[in-house]
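Section 4.2 – Deliverable D4.2 (structural model, holo form)

The reporting period included a commitment to supply a predicted holo structure for the target in complex with zinc ion. Inputs used:
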Amino acid sequence: MGQRHTVSLLSSIEERINSKLNEKELEIQNINRKNKDLVERIKQVSMEVRCWQCRTKYNESVVNVLKSNLEQVMAEGARNGKEGYGDSEVDTATSYANQNHTCRVGGSADSFSLKKQITCRACKINEASVLLFPCRHLCLCKVCEGLIDVCPTCRIKKSSSVEVFLS
Ligand SMILES: [Zn+2]
Ligand SMILES: [Zn+2]
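Output (structure tokens):
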């Protein structure tokens, strides 16, 4: 009798341990699944970060190109200002800025006609100070730029714009 009792007690303990083990196994599976999810998330996030880094780099390169463009324009403007005449540039944006600069520095005979070109093409009152993209025309003032979506010079829809200061 005693022995049988012990056996049934043992088997019930074993059963309980088994069910506990099963529970734990389920938990472990759950945790593993969550881990997998987390790893996926981390991968995704790190990809996003890389994406942003790429974009940042791209933006930086755009800024650098713009900077060097502007520097070139400034240098040429200063030179042209001394000479009194501007070379005709292929790049429209450059030549615009060039003329703008020449006009300010140069005081040459063309001053007046040049000045006409740098006033805002929309209101014809303010000075054009916003460079449009992608066409890179410098032809709008800050006020009109906020109201107009299409470049008044070439009719290309602007994707973005940058205010420029020529000193
Ligand atoms: Zn304007
Ligand atoms: Zn344009």
